[in-house]
Write a structure and sequence with these properties.
The chain contains 16 helices and 16 strands. It folds into 2 domains: 220 residues, Rossmann fold, CATH 3.40.50.1480; 151 residues, NAD(P)-binding Rossmann-like Domain (Rossmann fold, 3-Layer(aba) Sandwich). It is of the alpha/beta class. The structure holds 1,4-dihydronicotinamide adenine dinucleotide (NAI). The site of 1,4-dihydronicotinamide adenine dinucleotide has 30 residues, from α7, α8, α9 and α14.
């Protein structure tokens, strides 16, 4: 069957192909999981949809699933993170891809609709938008064997649906696998957030004060890397245990209101809205940088900032300068979207190797297991263990038994 696609510029395909080839060199675990499944027919002629940040590592996952015999449909879970060259490379490689960098919300939902109208067998979601769509248009879920969810925010949404008795499909909390959040959320986001911030700003971090909102897996990673680069780290939290953990890890802990006048860099990592508001922004130092590493772009109250600032202008790639009425300037990176992906290359390839191997294992589980019911399943321990053991093998590490 010929694939359909909507991409920004198909002529970018060769550049996209190069970036997919590069990351594929560092994803041996995914290759090994693929080898375990390739003699089976579990994926053959199945329809698989991916709604996940569309960059090179995701593309390699899509191509791997296609190699297993599936028909693959791809869109991005966040249009700001879409790499147009990668989308083009997928289009010329037989993937049904619907994605453009900076597409509007309406375009985004129309892409999702186009894909899901084709009645998928299994899906990979990143933040819960496929799940939301299929719960309001359940006629398109009639063949659905289940949903794999990539991130904390999406898992939280699934658990709410389950609690209210409204969950319609078997769903797997891929994020909660040890081989996912221990490495991807913490080390992957920790490193790639700082890669993006330092590249976008061209600024030194040593000696600066960094305020990290949230000390979950992502916050811990971002704070640890900042500390390693010589910054003084302030953590804000609402959970008393996490707050105490941050303190014992050597960070200062206080409210956002108190931290707001001290920080040079602010990074939100909570997954919840309006963490940094105007009452904080007006107290900030002249020249403070604001960014977000949480899934949604609502952690910094950009709508109020836009309304109340005297002016806003783009001063550099992915940096907006806001002039406040108190004459101070603050800089918002990547429009408050997910900084490491919208403003950078995303997680390191060898980290996504783990996360996407878990995804492939869970898709295989959904397609090959009978009698699953609508509930949020944990990642089967065999898959979690297999991925970590394959990673140790790839690193040349043997452990005691
Ligand atoms: P988590 O649940 O481990 O941590 C979130 C933390 O935020 C919790 O400790 C919570 O107490 C804290 N928090 C909640 N409201 C707060 C507030 N008002 N002020 C301060 N702290 C508050 O979640 P995790 O895994 O760290 O994920 C966080 C977000 O990052 C989610 O949206 C997730 O989807 C996203 N994520 C982003 C990645 C990226 O590549 N940028 C990778 C993985 C996850």
């Amino acid at each position: 069957m010929k694939n359909n696609f909507v991409v920004r510029d198909i002529n970018l395909a060769s550049k996209g192909k190069q970036s997919i080839e590069w990351v594929s060199k560092w994803m041996p675990v995914l290759d090994n999981v693929y080898r375990q499944y390739k003699t089976e027919n579990v994926f053959k002629n199945k329809k698989v949809a991916l709604c996940i940040h569309l960059e090179a590592k995701t593309a390699y996952l899509a191509l791997t699933i296609k190699k297993l015999g599936a028909e693959v449909w791809v869109t991005s879970s966040n249009t700001l993170s879409t790499k147009d060259e990668v989308a083009a490379a997928l289009a010329v490689n037989g993937i049904h891809v619907y994605a453009k960098h900076a597409a509007t919300r309406d375009e985004y939902w129309s892409y999702l609709e186009t894909i899901l109208k084709n009645n998928m067998d299994v899906t990979v979601d990143d933040g819960g938008d496929i799940c939301e769509y299929l719960h309001t248009h359940s006629k398109y879920g009639k063949n659905l064997k289940g949903i794999c969810e990539e991130t904390t925010t999406g898992v939280n949404r699934l658990k709410e649906l389950e609690k209210s008795g409204k969950l319609l499909y078997p769903s797997i909390a891929v994020n909660d696998a040890k081989s996912k959040h221990l490495f991807d959320n913490r080390y992957g986001t920790g490193q790639s957030t700082w890669t993006a911030i330092t590249q976008l700003t061209n600024m030194n971090i040593a000696g600066k004060t960094v305020v990290v909102a949230g000390y979950g897996w992502v916050g811990r990673g971002v704070a640890t890397r900042a500390q390693g680069m010589g910054a003084e780290v302030i953590v804000t939290e609402i959970d008393p245990w996490k707050a105490l953990e941050a303190k014992m890890d050597g960070h200062r802990v206080m409210t956002m209101l108190d931290a707001s006048s001290l920080g040079d860099f602010f990074i939100t990592t909570t997954g919840f809205s309006n963490i940094i508001r105007m009452e904080h922004i007006t107290r900030m130092k002249n020249g403070a940088f604001l960014s977000n590493a949480g899934h949604f772009d609502f952690e910094i109250d950009i709508p109020s900032l836009k309304k109340q600032a005297k002016s806003c202008k783009v001063v550099r790639d992915e940096i907006e300068e806001y002039l406040l009425t108190n004459k101070k300037k603050v800089y918002v990176l990547a429009q408050g979207g997910i900084i490491n992906i919208a403003g950078g290359l995303g997680h390191p390839a060898d980290i996504m190797d783990l996360s996407f191997s878990v995804q492939l294992g869970c898709l295989h589980f959904l397609l090959s297991t009978k009698n699953l019911v609508p509930k949020v399943y944990k990642v089967p321990t065999e898959i979690d263990r297999l991925v970590t053991e394959e990673k140790l093998k790839a690193e040349g590490i043997t452990i005691d038994k």
